[in-house]
Amino acid sequence: MLLPMGDSTNPDAASDQDLVRRMLSGEQAAFDAFFGAHAARLAAFASRRSALDAAALEDVVQQSLIKAIRNLAQFRGESTLHTWLCQICRNVLADIRRKADRQPRVESLEAAMEKSAALPVQLIDYRDPLEACADDSTRAAIRRTINALPPRYSQVLELKYGDELPIEQIARQLSLTESAAQSLLARARRAFAEQWLEQAEDSADDARSGFGVP
Amino acid sequence: MSTDDTGKMDGTDGALRRGLQVAPLSTEAMARIRAATEQEWRATTSTPQRSRHVMRRAAAAIVVLAIAGALMVGRFGGDTGAVIGKLERADQPGAVEHHWLHDHPLDNGAALHAGQRVEVQGGARIALAGAGSLRLAPGTRVKILSAHLLKLIDGSIYLDMPPTPGSQFEFSAQTPAGTFTHVGTQFLLAVHAGQTELQVREGSVRWHSDKGDVLAESGTQLIIDADGKATRTQVVTTGTTWSWAEGLAPIFEIENRSLTEFLQHVARETGRTLVFANGAVESRSATTQLHGSIDEMAPVDALATVMATTSLRFTLGGNSIRIESASDPGQTSK
Q: Choosing among A35, A41, A58, A102, which should be mutated to test the B contact, i.e. which has the most B CBs within 10 A?
């Protein structure tokens, strides 16, 4: 059963709002809980959506969290706190991309090569392309396959295999019952497997016909 | 790859993990992120309720700066972050904001805001939006993280937070060694080749790292190497260590100010104590009104210039500025 976002029966929304309220009142334990629960996940979220090096990634996560702290009073519990943080992070990454886009198109080959290592990939909500790792073609192929899935599928796969959340947390994150989350995950995994197999077969055909390998 | 009826998929879980799992940031990086976030959180939640009217006025001032910042954004395409302050002085060859491929020059008066990476090629001074000033030695590179926090990438900065009753403005600087927060103070912070040096001239500074908090008092020097190993020694609060910062001291408007106010400014800027020879000299200093301008003169040069126009004279000691009557026999000036 799909619950509406921000539903008062969503235990995460209530606990997130409580956490935010305690943080706003200056409670150290609340800040510790906030950072412990979200910082590393946010770093992984940003990393999957960019090709930034570690230093730049650190800046992105730090900026995102600082912006979140400054706007903490604006959090209304209409989504989970983590979803809200991810949206802030997306905006930070999008700012970086916009800045990069404003740069002149004519540049030296050397500069272009240096730049290509630092630019983030295209960003589109939960259909964010994740093919950042040019040096890891298998990983890139896996991410392309995930990106090609329906958004709800790629989302649940990211929560399960990227963040390694247990099913009860995935259910809360997606405002689903545990059995619905389990079912969604199974469908998503099956869809991925089918796409992945299809892609592998296409690649093999291309290789046999001389069109190269993936 | 194949699927069976139970939903188990050979290799699928492994492929998904390979595609979606990423290397975590280092412990040190997470500690730095935590320190910066916690600093911002403390600054956000420590706003005293009793001074709301003061905050409203401060907010109005920040709005004005933010508008200036927005104009700069339109001009240079920077971030729309919180304003940390205004570039008050940038010595030749100037200051620049780093972008992805190009550097943009920053003019005096430019509002500086979160997200900007700034390099000063000559020395520079920033008037902080909250209170106090920040001076940057030539060649220093910083990244502004919020209205209360900057990252010192390389070079030296000097924070001067004059003691203002009721002021609760928090300001911190982050280095590879952790976060340094003033506790009503003047301090110098430097980063070179991964090593951090803190020298506290007045007041105290809180050093926060993943190992805990350390309070460094006036006259303390901490040297923290790239591995986080710290050495504590003493540092004199006068002398050449501070010369570059003294040369970037804020302009002191002397017009219609008393000589005593000016002398107090010079004493603070040079890390010395102000000493009057006797009550009569102290009284004469308090009633002497100054006129004119000493724009951008180093404090000691300004002292010599101003004192030459009065009936008093000064002597610079190791830790003091002694003021006495010019007509007293047997005394030497400077």
A: A58
Tokens of B289: 């009104």
Six-digit token string for A201: 């077969």
Predicted pLDDT of residue B203: 87
Question: Mean per-residue pLDDT for B277-305?
Answer: 87
Q: What is the pLDDT of residues B234-290, one digit of tens each?
A: 888 888 888 888 888 888 888 889 999 999 989 988 888 899 999 999 999 999 989
Preceding amide of B93 cis, omega within 30: yes
Chain B interface mutation, best of A32, A66, A157, highest count of B Cβ atoms under 10 Å: A66
Contact A99 B40 (CB under 8 A): no
Q: What's the gap between Cα A59 and its chain centre?
A: 17
Q: Is B17 on the interface with A (CB under 8 A)?
A: yes
Q: Which of B15, B16, B19, B1 is nearest to A198 (CA)?
A: B1
pLDDT mean over B107-121: 88
CA–CA dist B77, B100 (Å, integer): 11
Of the candidate ranges B2-16, B29-43, B312-326, the one whose mean pLDDT is the lowest: B2-16
CB contact under 8 A, A197 and B22: no
The pLDDT score that the predictor gives to residue A173 is 83
User: Contact at 8 Å (CB) between B129 and B86?
Assistant: yes
Which residue does chain A place closest to B34, by CA atoms? A35
Contact B18 A99 (CB under 8 A): no
Mean pLDDT within A125-149: 62
> What contacts 24+ positions apart, CB below 8 Å, involve B197-205?
B197/B221, B197/B222, B197/B223, B197/B224, B198/B222, B198/B223, B198/B224, B199/B235, B199/B241, B200/B235, B201/B237, B201/B242, B201/B271, B202/B237, B202/B268, B202/B271, B203/B161, B203/B163, B205/B180, B205/B181
A127 or A104, greater pLDDT:
A104
